Predict the structure of Trehalose 6-phosphate synthase.
Amino acid sequence: RSRAVPMRGDGQGQPASKTGRLVIVSNRVADLSKGNLAGGLAVAVGEALKSSGGLWFGWSGARSAEAHSKGPNIQTFGNVSTATVDLTEKEFEDYYLGFSNRCLWPLFHYRLDLAELHTTGQATYFEVNKRFAAEVAPLIQTDDTIWVHDYHLIPFAAHLRQKQVTNRIGFFLHIPFPAPELFSALPHHRDFAKTFFAYDLVGFQTVRDRENFARYAEEYLNCRRLNDGRLRGFGRTLRIEAFPIGIDAESFAAEAEKNARAPELRALAREVESERLIVGVDRLDYSKGLPERVRAMGSLLEKWPNYIGKVQLLQIAPPTREGVQAYDEIRSELERITGEVNGRYGDFVWSPVRYVNRPVPRAMLAGLFRRSRVGLVTPLRDGMNLVAKEYVAAQDPADPGVLVLSQFAGAAEQMEEALMVNPHDPAETATAIRRALEMPLGERRARHKALWNQIVSESVGWWRERFLAVLHETNGQPATPGGP
Ligand code: GDG
C-alpha cells in the first residue's frame, strides 16, 4: 500500500475549504438538479464541491449547430454552480468521438491496433480545449483551486495559463498512462505531452502509470527527475503522484444488503443457486476483456463438465460510445462468442452465459453482487476498475463471494488478496473461477476481510482529500504566454 503514498510532503496540506473555492473541469458535468449525486465522478468530487463551495465546468451533453457559444449556461445549487457549454456537431465528432475516443482511449489502453493515430481530430481536440479554457477563465477567482479530469482535457491548463491564470491547477488521469514506446507512436506526441507541464500536479491511478509517464518524460522530453520524484522540464517543476481512486464502501454495502432480496433477484435465484452464480458488470468496451471472459466460461465447462447445467455467468454490459466502429465490432464479437458457448453447452432450460445489453439500476447491481459467489473483473487494461471494489463492498462478510481480478486492472496494485489472472489466458481464468467456486468458507472470509479493510481505508473520500492536499502543497505556476 505504501507504494501509493506521496514521495514528498505528507499529503496533509490545507484542506480545500480553507483556501477558496474548488473548480472542477471535466468533459461532462453531472446534473446537480437531481439532488442525489449519481455516477462516478459526481460522487467522487461532490463532497469536496459542497464543502468548499465551487464551480463545475464542462460540456452540457448537448450538440448545437452554432459554431460560437454565447457563453456558458450557469446554474446555481446552493454554494455550487455548474457552467456548461454545448459542442458543435463537428466538435462532437472530432474532439469527443474522434481524437478522445478513437485515438487516445485505445492508445492509452495499449491498443495501438485500434488507435486511429492519423485522425484529423487532434486539431479540433486542441481547439475545444482552448475554447473551454477561454469560456471558464472569466469565471476563475484568485484563490480558486482548479481540478481537471481525464484524457479529454489534457491540454486544458496549457490554454488556461495563456489566459494569465496562475492558480493551482491539478489534473487526474482516470485511465492508464501507457508504456512510453506506445505513447511515442502518437503523431506530435511531444507537443501533446508537454502540455502536462502546465499543471502543478498530475495524478495517476497507479504507480505503474506514474512511472510510465516519468520514463516517457525523461527519455523523450529530456526532463530531469528530481530526488523527490518531481519532474523538471519546460522551465517548470511538475509533481506527479499515484492516487488510486476508491468508492464509498460503507454506503455501497448498505445498498447491497438492502437489495439482496429484491423480487427480480429472487426469480434469478430460482434458476441458479447463488453459490453457482458468477457476475460481470462492464460498459461494453473492448478494454474490458468480455470475449475472453466468455471464452473462459467455455474453457471451464470443457475442463470440468460437472459444472454443466449448474453455473452461470450473468454479464451486464450496457452499450457505450455507439457510433465508434471498434465498439460495434466488440459487440458483434461478444455476441458471437456468447452464442457459441451457449449453443455448445446450453440445453432447453439452462445456458451458461446470460448477457444483458442494457444498463441495470445501481441498487439492483449492488444486490446482484451480494448474491453472486464469484465477481469476474477481467479487463485487458483498466485505469482502476471500480466494479472490483463494489463487488467486494457488496459481500456478506459472514459468507462472502470471491473476486477474480485481472492483473492489468489498476485495482490489482491494491487488491492483492483477489484471485489474480492473466485475462488473455482463458484456461488460467477458468482455473481461477473453479478455485473461487470451490473455495472454503474460512479462506473466503479471510480474503474478503483483507480486501474490505483495504477499500474502506483507501476510499473515494481518501482519494479526493489526498489529491487536494497534495495539490495545496504545490505553489501554482506563473503564466508564461506561449509556454506549455
Ligand atoms: C473509468 C476508467 C476507472 C456499469 N454498468 C452499469 C453501471 N456501471 C457502473 C459500475 C461502476 C462504473 O459504472 C464503472 O466504473 P469502472 O471503474 O468499472 O470503469 P469505467 O467506466 O471504464 O471508468 C476506470 C474509473 O474511470 C474511475 O476513475 O476506475 O478504470 O476506465 O461504478 O458499477 N451502473 C449502473 N448500471 C449499469 O448497468 N447503474
